[in-house]
User: Fold this.
Amino acid sequence: MTISETAEKTKGAASIAGSYAQRAGVFDELLGRGGVPREHWKTLLSELDALGGAELSHRSESANRIILEQGITYNVYGDPRGRERPWQLDPIPFVLDGAEWAKLGKALTQRAVLINRVLADCYGPQDLLRSGWLPPALLFAQPEFLRPAHGIRPPGGIHLHFYAADVARSPDGQWWVLNDRTQIPTGSGYALANRLVSSRVLPEAFRNCGVQRVAGYFRQVQSTLASLCSRRTDEPRVVMLTPGPYNETYFEQAYLARYLGYSLVEGQDLTVRDERVYLKTLSGLEPVDVILRRLDDDFCDPLELRSDSTLGIPGLVEAVRAGNVAVANALGTGLLESPAFMPFLPGLSRHVLGEELLMPSVATWWCGQKPAEAYVREHSGELELRPAFRRHRGFAGAAWDAKDLERQIRFAPHLWTAQERVALSTSPCWDGAHLSPHPTALRVYLVATPDGGYTVMPGGLARLGAESSAQFVTMQGGGASKDTWVLSDGPVEETTLIHPAGGVVELRRVGNNLPSRLADNYFWLGRYAERADATGRLLRSALLRFNPESAGSEAPLIAPLLETLSAQGQFPDGCGGTADELEAALLAAVYDPSNPGSLRGLADKAEQLAMLVRDRTSNDVWRALSGFNECVSASPDGTEPLATDAIAGINRLLLQVASFYGLSRENMTRAQGWRFLDMGMRIERALYLATFLSHALRAEMADNPSVLEAVLEVADSTITYRSRYSLLPNLAAVYDLVLLDDTNPRSLLFQLLQLEKHFARLPREKQSALPTEAQRLLVGSVASVRLLDPRELSERNAGWHAGQTGVVLRDILQNLPRLSDAIAASYFAHSSISRA
Amino acid sequence: MNYTITHRTIYDYPAAVSASFHAARFEPQTFEGQKCTDFELRVWPPPAVQKVRTDYFGNRVSFFSIQEMHRRLEVSARSRVAVKAATPPALALSEPWEKVRERFRDPVSPADVQPYEFCLDSPLIMATPQLADYAKASFPAGVPALVGVRDLARRIFREFKYDPRATTVATPIDEVFRKRAGVCQDFAHIAIASLRSLGIPARYVSGYLRTVPPPGKERLVGADASHAWFAAYCPQQGWLEFDPTNDLLVGEDHIRVAVGRDFSDVSPLSGILTGGGEHEVNVSVDVRPEG
Assistant:
């Protein structure tokens, strides 16, 4: 039955849900008995009707635009570049009423408490194994049972700080737990991002529905983590440990770290000294109290856990054992993620809590028990076979033929479970023209409270399957999601993270110290952004001068430009071929994605580096950076770009770079991050300018006004020159402007002086009366540039490069790479780890 | 028999190591039949932190970390151990092997939970039908379990060639099984995997072996290394140790240091270094009987 047959009779006007066709045999979230919309959907439906279909499509597009602009992505494995895929969000929220939510929350809280108690027993006395409530194989045969963590009692007895459950509704309306997430419950950051988008695209509906806020959950996350600190301090240091930017939920990690105010660190940023964990920062080691881990626990310490892990922190387990650092979730919690535990939870609940389990798990059989094995064998066709434990070697999923599988189960039955297939409930999704029902499962998030209870996020991540399927797809498989609106019975509590409860905030002018690795990334981001800028200017000047009509005659004017690029390995040597060859080479230097030195390659690299500092970068800056490669990507329809297209693309790119510089200059505080970004940029600019000038001086016609015009163009100083000299470019005047003029932000001297300023402000490892190597190099370079007199150039008729100017340029070209190395050695020394 | 054991390990690194973390398992166990009366672990350069604790399997493990620049690490363990001579157990009195297997099927009784852990797969050992078939030849119907184990140890001794060049520490057991060659670690793994594939608990034992000097000659110092063998479990007899490399029931000549599911649980010295590069290792073990 469709809604049009019932509801519309009373309503008259065309409803947005008019053609929504409820599917037979499953529970529908929107429509109840007789195809009448359920009570808690009515406000939303009337809001949607008020908007109308066209407006809703428009809102859906704005949702997609916000997602793109905010860079909300999910990495899909298997892509060689770990390409980020934009997050998919359906604009229609998943609506639940407050009373039902309260029941759901109570059941999941009970489950979290139970799981925590079971974990405490498994990593402690193991009474449950001896009393027969838990088959010992569930523990002993599990790779997730981390024996080195046995005997460690975490602060407050809390192992499971974060818990998420995938729940779904069966045809009779009953909620079931499909999966327990106890290792690293992912997705709360995506739920937060969904909320941000949905409340923005449907503001009227969001207000009028009385939607419960999710910020309170995140405030609880902050106070729970702070409570784990063992030091006496008002400001416990919490860091979020990430496996790195290729992880599928890296966006979420950076997003949450920024929202919660934690440093996002990799294992190599941390070190253990005297059984304490420290963060390596530019000004030395800083103690870490709590690690919010997004790295699987067995990877966390190569000394005691997986020895092949390069992502962990050697000595971490000892530091945890000594009680000097807390890890959330505690090491070893992945144990309870195994579906094999599900059949035992009702008994455990009665035994451990003295309560009936409030929400059932999807029917599951663990084949380690004879009767279960026999049942699974008989009903294998109707059941979903799953390995009992993660990383069960030898399992290749569907590739097994039935006979093989049968043999496997017979030989090692305890390694297998089977589950009933669940027909998920459907919820309405906007497909661009109307609402259609999609199978939906909900992930609900809980965080432990210091008193041993749990707080439930009122909301969660609703995930969708294809319209035709009954199963929902995983995020890794690429499904869409929805925001979840839990309606409030009373007034909605407004909370934000800006004012944490109580306490006086100490005012600060500097942020938390910058981890050395991030300083490294900022430095190289600055270098690559400027490399893209300089390369763009050189190529643009070359393309503007390139004229197929008079091929050859322009060659002397183009040569210094191309030689500069060749010197950096960005252009083929000896480009004196035909006009066609030259044009092809120029276009390849702009567009070729397989050449790391092409503009496109540089733009990609800059974007990758930006990704690495994502948690510290504003959305505006991110938008400017991620626009780089679009400017220099060949058209997707495969048409060959022309020289004019390339010039237009470079113009756009130079504007993007300029807006990135502008934003970072105006929006970043003059702290260490900005300083390293600017240092990278200055070094690169000086390097390209010096390379180009020394090639220009070598040119036969170095004093030719056309060559000098190119010099002014590349150094972006044409206008300044014209405002000062009303004559054709003159050799001495041009070189004075681009080399020596310390008021010209494009001059070589200006770059060197900026670098000197930065050095004076950077923390020094050892206080020494003597200047560092980097400072020595700089002082020498500045002095030699200052002492130049460009008039010596005008006195020559040829061989300009042999004069003092040429010598100084060559010295600078030698010093700049050494300067960069010296910076790396003093500030970014994150040494490699090896094994014995 | 009393022994003084010296186990020295020297690492030479081509590049300086700025920090290192190590776990060492050198201290012989004390139990009915063996007593470690004295133990000393010396590390050079001196560690900033050193701690001793008992690991999950009851082995003594020493954690230490060096936080100064070094190019050479020297770890030297010295222990004095008294080993009691025991009457050889009557293998034929053990339960038929099928009964042992039945005991270690779910649900296992509380008394059997501890040995049951050694029936299941571990990081380096996975039960397979092939290994079960291999073991079966030693376990005809109704044979006392320990008689079968003894026979399995003998077959490994006869059918596998002792060849240090055939394998490395990292060679997986299916490759050892295919090559029918390896060293003590490999033979212990093969025996354990075969027994677990049948459903009989088996565990890995690391330790030292006294080398009996040929008549009229000085015993060689430093020629020996650490040794490995395995233990099998039977309800009445408990854990019994067998040495498939020498075709022996373990007795007065063996000194037990650590037990675990496989080599990965008992590795004598493991470490994670910052810096270092491709290093060289020198190990010498001296097991000297006293009177």
About this structure: Chain A has a mean pLDDT of 86.
